[in-house]
Design goal:
The chain is globular, with a radius of gyration of 19 Å. The protein has 260 residues and is an alpha/beta fold. It has one domain: P-loop containing nucleotide triphosphate hydrolases (Rossmann fold, 3-Layer(aba) Sandwich). Helix 2 packs across helix 9 and helix 4 packs across helix 5. The chain is built from nine helices and ten strands. The strands form two sheets. Strands 1, 2, 5, 6, 7, 8, 9 and 10 form an eight-stranded mixed sheet that branches. Strands 3-4 form a two-stranded antiparallel ribbon. The structure holds adenosine-5'-diphosphate (ADP). Adenosine-5'-diphosphate binds next to helix 2, strand 8, strand 10 and helix 8. Homodimer. GO terms for molecular function: 4 iron, 4 sulfur cluster binding; ATP binding; ATP hydrolysis activity; ATP-dependent FeS chaperone activity; metal ion binding.
């Protein structure tokens, strides 16, 4: 016979996607946090997850460039932003889609937190994982993120350099204190393969992030080398995780560990 009201309600609830927020943070800028957020999201989508990307780096948004969605404008529906589609199966919302390119965003904390809320409360129905690219460091945005949106966990990106590492560990501590468990630490720009002779050098050293993570009792997720192809493809809006080869595999490996 026809299903009763209770059965219909259960079916509707089962249909509702349980959304997990994974925040990507760093102690300082320029360590590859945005690059990692993009490529994690793309790798997760390739592995069959329904993923969305929120660019919470309100003052320095880069996800429109990284995902090749520059110039697209999100529409609003029922007072909520509709994420912009990207060619990689990862819809995205970024301040870059709401401001003119190169336009400086000079907001005080509360306004930036308001913008964060707009991005996170967009039409993310259907997204099972929301990857959030945080600003570097530990400020208002991170606090709003933790208090209001309760991420399932944070991934911390660092270079192998001592100073970057110290900042990264400070950020990791803030997340733990704020109730967001650190999923693990990723060491980026670890080792450089010379495109001419192939010799691998270590401009920032290597292994430091792994040792620091271990000291703090946090999982170490893996390392991504400094590779000119990563920079070139990222700048062109074609995420390396969408391609083939060792770097795509490295991002896929991180994505598998994070979605476990
Ligand atoms: P952050 O978000 O920490 O400020 P970005 O992701 O914007 O850092 O990266 C800073 C610059 O470094 C970008 O030009 C990016 O393409 C480049 N980059 C990041 N990771 C790598 C890597 N593993 N190899 C080469 N270039 C990288």
């Amino acid at each position: 016979g026809a299903p009763g009201v209770a059965e219909v309600r259960v079916a509707m609830m089962a249909d509702k996607v349980e959304r997990r927020i994974i925040a990507v943070g760093s102690g300082k800028g320029g360590v590859g946090k945005s690059t990692l957020a993009t490529n994690l999201a793309v790798a997760l989508a390739r592995q069959g997850h329904k993923v969305g990307l929120v660019d919470a780096d309100i003052y320095g948004p880069s996800q429109a460039r990284l995902l090749g969605t520059e110039g697209k404008r999100p529409v609003a529906h029922d007072q909520k932003l509709v994420p912009v589609a990207s060619p990689w199966g990862v819809p995205v919302l970024s301040m870059a889609h709401l401001s003119d390119p190169g336009q400086a965003i000079a907001w005080r904390g509360p306004m930036a937190s308001g913008a964060l809320t707009q991005l996170l409360e967009g039409h993310w129905e259907g997204a099972e994982i929301l990857v959030v690219d945080l600003p570097p460091g530990t400020g208002d945005i991170q606090l709003t993120m933790m208090q209001k949106f309760k991420p399932a966990g944070a991934v911390i990106v660092s270079t192998p350099q001592d100073l970057a590492l110290m900042d990264a560990m400070r950020a990791a501590e803030l997340f733990e204190k704020g109730g967001t468990p650190v999923i693990g630490v990723v060491e980026n720009m670890a080792g450089y393969a010379c495109p001419h002779c192939g010799e691998v050098s270590e401009p920032f050293g290597t292994g430091g992030a792994e040792a620091a993570a271990r000291t703090m009792g946090m999982p170490f997720l893996g390392r991504i080398p400094l590779d000119i192809a990563i920079r070139r493809e990222s700048d062109a809006g074609t995420p390396p995780a969408a391609g083939e080869g060792p770097q795509a595999e490295a991002f896929a490996d991180l994505a598998r560990k994070i979605s476990d």
